[in-house]
Request: fold
Amino acid sequence: MRTLQWMALAALLGIGVQGRASASEDTGQDRAEAAGKELVGSAAPRMVLKTIDGDTIDLGDLYGKKAVYLKFWATWCVPCRQQMPHFEHAYETAGPDLAVIAVNAGFNDSVEEIRKYRHALGITMPIVMDDGRLGAALNLRVTPQHVVIGRDGRIQYVGHLADARLDTALVTARQTGFAAAPAPAPAMTEHWASNLGDLLPARSVTTLDGKTFPFRTPTSPRPTVLVFIPPWCESYLATTRPAISASCRRTREQVNRLAQDQRVRWIGIASGLWASEEDLRKYRDDYKVGIPLTLDESGALFRAFGVADVPTVLIADARGKLVRRMVPDDADSLRQAIGTL
Reply:
């Protein structure tokens, strides 16, 4: 009965049970396949996941017994919602030889939002909120991103669309095979400066222009402002998260006005989720962004600085000590925050 309800919802959405909404999603498929190119055939990561309901799922314990289907998604992601009928159908018809797990990307989401989303869409499969380690291990680059792991514990498929390729992968993944050599669990993320009072790391990044930007400088010390903002925040989230979209616009406008202040060092950091260097250059040129930008392709900088929401601004004083963290609902302006240094 529930499968029929999901099929009806799919028809209302105009996407069919296969979940293909438009040709524009081909870009997502390309990005997912590129991200999965080095993963397919390799041993899947062994991690113990905790669901939003407090249950635990030991991925390593599943390998060798059943296939595993992981779908990375977000509540603000339009194709994720469009593909939910297909995903729920896969869970309902999985049988004993396939584990189906919904993995929220943990980016601009909260457990409260996830629970509301689950209730609104009637999702019944287990839901995990990623702390960044699983996404890093599986090269998360788009939402949704499907990862199909065979019964032998090896990654068989990575994609974006809910189409015949995914359906075929879900069938072949259940075939009996020898257990793969165990892959180590992803290491815990090193937190560089996630708390007030922490020092910025003595490390550097490369900007879009090929220059080196050190987080801390021993000479000519100046305050440093790190602006975490993806190039699609204003445009894509305008309909799914209008308040966040407006916050990204305000932050970008404030940064543009203050960028000429030579008393402050600036660096803009964009996540690699749904973004390439080409996307970031277009964002810089279209909006006349005047600060150096760097692409955090793997999301390592976001994790190291403890950033899970955008826009987030971290401000360090001239000694490199983190003195302020500004989040989307911060009432103070960036000018006010910098003025207190």
